[in-house]
Amino acid sequence: MQEQPVANVRWGEWISEGWQMFADKWQVWVLQMLVVVGIFAIPLIPFALMMFSIQAQAVATPDQPPELPPLFLPMAFGIAVFSFLAGPFFLAGLHKTAFKQLRGEPISVGDVFSGGDMFPQVLGAILATAFFTMLGALFCILPGYVVSGVLFFTVPLIVERRLGIGEALSASFNATKSNWFMFTLFVLVVGIMASLGGIACYVGILATMPLQFTISAIAYRDVFGVAGARSFLNNQPQYPTNYAPQAFPPPPSLFETPSQQEATASICPNCGTQIVRAARFCSKCGASIGA
Questions:
Q1: Is the overall model pTM greater than 0.85, yes or no?
Q2: Domain boundaries in the chain?
Q3: For 70, which of 15, 38, 48, 252 is 20 to 30 Å away at the CA?
């Protein structure tokens, strides 16, 4: 029986390089976060003022229950719908920003609005992941965290590889299932790091929330491979990955014979995609390739 390759979690390397990636373009990331927070705050400000008015009324007339303004329920419903739709849109844009920077392309604040073409797939992936997470949480809560760990790469796979929802879920699961415990811990740690900025009156999230995307991009690069990906480590122009040295097979040379071209390629036994022979995971479906 062939030994299945395992995608190991490189805690220090991924977190350290993710931080370096953020620091390399921190101005763009902070401004992007400021834009996103500002857009989400627009409908919340009048709602917060309305809530303050209701509380003031309750204090002024403690013997009478406060009356809800006529716009209370419509505004609450509108904010819920807005958050439900805007979340996946900006999530796709932020992941796109991370992958652009990873490939050495220039990034800008406007990239946060670039996720429109991926919106339906990202929304569906979020709903599917939430469903499986809640389903896992029914079994003593802990399995819900495991589901979040093994499906961690679902949205990045949709954004970077343009996979379908089912393909992305399957590829993420196949790449992480052999080391599910460490990936579960990794997702929890990254989530805690991204939310730590909330301690400093929520201003710090402008600097910590981008780590959710930069660290994820670095981890994705090492597990699945990204064509043209760069390294953010000092004096290291190209990061060596053990899992997928190249995301896609290189174009055939005009001076190579067909037999030489075939010798450098392989076929994924799961989906039939042509991949680099040295790759340990399929660049399309994420299935592990036996050594």
A1: no
A2: 11-233, 244-291
A3: 38
